[in-house]
């Protein structure tokens, strides 16, 4: 039986640090570029579009999945499923003891929360372009009468006047989750006992 000295500091895993540096750069850059009030489909980089599109697909499928439960559930279902996907991976990696991967998934959740905040911020003006299944990308100028998810939800809940405050708080929460995930990933980027 091998005795393990837990006081000895394990070396960092080069590949984990490389992945963390790559993800951190793009996650922080995207989080910085997506300020509340920016057009919903605008990302300043290729990586931004990858992260954004990883949120759009579950969002649109959430509308379809929750449509049978009424209008409110259908509209809210997009955001619910969009947030559920990274949460699922956080829980999965946590219970399989993959701490580094769970930490990166926390940053992914933060990015998703930022995208939700950007979408929220357009609730009053409904500016930007939106994806409608069967219609493609549309805007309020090209599709009169378009009501966005958050305009509908905030109007229904009586929160439309508080949209800027809620969107700004949601954006800050997302940015903090990105930073927390990066910090946790760094703290868990050392080699495991099985590696040496």
- Give me the count of strands: 2
Quaternary structure annotation: single chain
What structural category characterises the helix and strand content? mainly alpha
- How far the N terminus sits from the C terminus, by CA atoms, comes to 15 Å
Question: What is the average per-residue confidence, as pLDDT, rounded to a whole number?
Answer: 80
Choose one word for the global shape: elongated
Helix-strand topology string: HHHHEEHH
Strand order of the largest sheet: 1-2
Q: Strand share of the residues?
A: under 5%
Using the CA coordinates, give the radius of gyration: 19 Å
Sheet with the most strands, sense and barrel status: 2 strands, antiparallel
Describe this structure in words.
With 196 residues, the chain is mainly α. Helices cover 63% and strands 4% of the residues. The chain has one domain. It contains six helices and two strands; from the N terminus they run ααααββαα. The mean pLDDT is 80.
């Amino acid at each position: 039986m091998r005795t393990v000295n837990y006081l000895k500091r394990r070396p960092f895993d080069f590949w984990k640090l490389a992945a963390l540096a790559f993800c951190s750069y793009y996650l922080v850059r995207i989080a910085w570029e997506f300020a509340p009030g920016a057009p919903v489909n605008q990302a300043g980089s290729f990586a931004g579009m990858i992260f954004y599109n990883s949120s759009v697909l579950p969002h649109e499928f959430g509308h379809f999945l929750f449509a049978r439960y009424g209008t409110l559930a259908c509209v809210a279902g997009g955001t619910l499923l969009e947030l559920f996907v990274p949460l699922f991976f956080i829980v999965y990696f946590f219970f399989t003891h993959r701490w580094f991967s769970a930490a990166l998934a926390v940053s992914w959740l933060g990015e998703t929360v930022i995208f939700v905040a950007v979408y929220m911020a357009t609730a009053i003006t409904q500016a930007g372009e939106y994806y409608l299944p069967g219609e493609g990308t549309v805007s309020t100028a090209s599709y009169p009468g378009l009501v966005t998810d958050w305009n509908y939800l905030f109007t229904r809940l009586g929160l439309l006047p508080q949209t800027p405050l809620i969107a700004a708080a949601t954006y800050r929460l997302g940015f903090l989750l990105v930073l927390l995930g990066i910090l946790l990933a760094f703290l868990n980027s050392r080699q495991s006992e099985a590696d040496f």
